[in-house]
Design brief:
- InterPro entries: Sig_transdc_resp-reg_C-effctor (IPR016032), TF_LuxR_autoind-bd_dom (IPR005143), TF_LuxR_autoind-bd_dom_sf (IPR036693), Tscrpt_reg_LuxR_C (IPR000792), WH-like_DNA-bd_sf (IPR036388).
- This is Transcriptional regulator.
- Pfam families: Autoind_bind, GerE.
- One of its GO terms (biological process) is regulation of DNA-templated transcription.
- With 242 residues, the chain is an alpha+beta fold.
- It folds into two domains: 169 residues, Beta-Lactamase, CATH 3.30.450; 68 residues, Arc Repressor Mutant, subunit A (Orthogonal Bundle), CATH 1.10.10.
- The chain has a five-stranded antiparallel sheet, with helices on both faces. A two-stranded antiparallel sheet has the order 6-7.
- A hairpin with a 2-residue loop joins strand 6 and strand 7.
- Helix 1 runs antiparallel to helix 2, helix 7 packs across helix 9 and helix 7 crosses helix 10.
């Protein structure tokens, strides 16, 4: 177990994009006997779609997001109301479900998502997410697996959420334009005259990844060069200090 968890932490630390986070969790969940996982971070602003990272079937995830099922999903409803982890499934006792919610669970089961263990993730600033470990197993086998490993699964969920929020969700604005922490890191080092290779060495990422973040920041700020983007960052910092 120690080796599995240490590898998980290493993979999470190295992850920069959603696919890296998905691989970290998928490899670890599979090693623990759980076939699927799904992480959903609720949007902070109306009209925005939730962030979904999962190994659920692609057709189901697309259908879920397209149908705005986060508004109907009884698992998310319970995760919003409670901070305690919980098991769920069609044959597991739970709160009474509406006809639409029952249809939702039947739909999920058709895609091989019939049982789950969900960890609600509530932050101090009001942000809410949930991470679910799911399987298409016989109920006794699934419950034994979850009961044996529940503390580890909860810790994995919290580590995952913390890293995703730090790398993918947290934003800082420059003149009202949101930039991710990694974009700001790379732009800050570029403002000090560092090359993409040097930035990669400093931040522990590849040269190409550093270039990706710099170009992303440049495009967001609407300027032609990284130097101009760095100047915008320096100007914004100067304004805050005045």
């Amino acid at each position: 177990m120690h080796r599995i968890f240490q590898r998980y932490v290493d993979l999470l630390s190295a992850a920069e994009y959603a696919d890296g986070f998905s691989e970290a969790m998928a490899v670890t969940a599979t090693a623990l006997g759980l076939s699927h996982f799904a992480y959903l971070a609720m949007p902070r602003r109306r009209g925005k779609r939730p962030l979904v990272i999962s190994t659920y079937p692609v057709d189901w995830v697309s259908h879920y997001v397209r149908s705005s099922y986060e508004r109907l999903d009884p698992i998310i409803t319970l995760a919003l109301e409670s901070t305690e982890p919980f098991k769920w499934g069609l044959d597991l006792p739970s709160k009474p479900l509406s006809a639409a919610q029952q249809r939702f669970l039947h739909e999920a089961a058709q895609f091989g998502i019939s049982l789950g263990f969900t960890v609600p993730l509530h932050d101090e600033d009001g942000a809410v997410a949930a991470l679910t470990f799911a399987a298409n197993q016989r109920r006794p086998q699934f419950e034994r697996c979850v009961d044996l490993q529940a503390p580890v699964l909860q810790l994995m969920a919290r580590c995952f959420h913390w890293q995703v929020r730090r790398k993918l969700l947290q934003e800082v604005t420059i003149d009202g334009i949101p930039l991710s922490p990694r974009e700001l890191d790379c732009l800050g080092w570029a403002a000090r005259g560092k090359t993409t290779w040097e930035i990669g060495q400093i931040l522990g990422i590849s040269r190409n990844t550093a270039a990706y973040y710099l170009n992303s920041a440049r495009n967001k700020l609407g300027v032609r060069t990284v130097v101009q983007a760095a100047m915008r960052l320096a100007a914004a910092k100067a304004d805050r200090q005045d």
